[in-house]
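Posting for a labmate who doesn't have an account.
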Amino acid sequence: MDRITAAQVFVCIAEQGSLSAAAERLDMSRAMVTRYLAEMEGWIGARLFHRSTRRLSLTTAGGLALERCRAMLALAGELPLLGEAQSEQPRGVLRLACAPSLAEALLARAVAAFVERYPGTHVDLQTSDKAVNLVEERIDLAVRITNTLEPGMIARRLADCHSVICAAPAYLARRGRPSTPDELAGHACLTYDYFGSSVWQLGAPGLPAPLAVPVWGPLSSNDACALLQAALAGAGVSLQPLYAVAGHLAAGRLEALLPAYQPRVMGIHAIYLSRQYQPAILRAMLDFLAEWMGQEPALQAPEVVLSELAGIAR
């Protein structure tokens, strides 16, 4: 039997938790899944799962084998790309992952422009607020906003992500406009990924270090889109990526606050598995995103964007 397929079946069983679920996921009969598992156990010379009537659990040998099989499958996946890596014409499928807010505000438009430029390509855009495992999720490229990259991670910085403190006119009419960072303590601040409280890092000319400003409010969420909608509804003050709110600022649905203070700048990074044997479609997407984001108005420095928006408003 094909040992590569046997390894794929073994990994799928471990991820799905049962032979039946793996058979359904792989569109394969349960009997065939059982045969491939037996082939793997015969090849390795050890039992890979503890079996009970309710569930499967990996043996010690199974845990070691799972790590090595995943690495082997990743390597096997690169082999067909050896020839394609020499091709200059992008083609085929690229699986790209990012946060929902980034897809909505930026990447959906970028991907649309990419597939129009390269007609032989197809992009499978996956969105999640969690950092995906590229190997397990079979992701070719992830775009993340972070200043903390994991050790050994292969990444290319595409652009800077500037943020702005903002609120809806209705909220400001009720609660007033903060004129200093200290006054944020008296406002309903909408916070990301924390329960109850958070700290906003704000820099300004002449300050030796950014101010750490504790904020608190009635709503926190791990979904940036939810916080944006709450801010638009007048629920409070929000710290938002400038790319996500530029249109709302231009339309007057939100107003920028504390313009003298700059929230911490984050990096927008493209993260991928290997610098070697990259398919043409991945190389083309990396270059395209760097070029596209370099020209995107909402990714420019806040003073540039906000001054342009002020000119539009006048």
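Reply:
Got it, the structure tokens are right above this. DSSP finds eleven helices and 15 strands in the chain.
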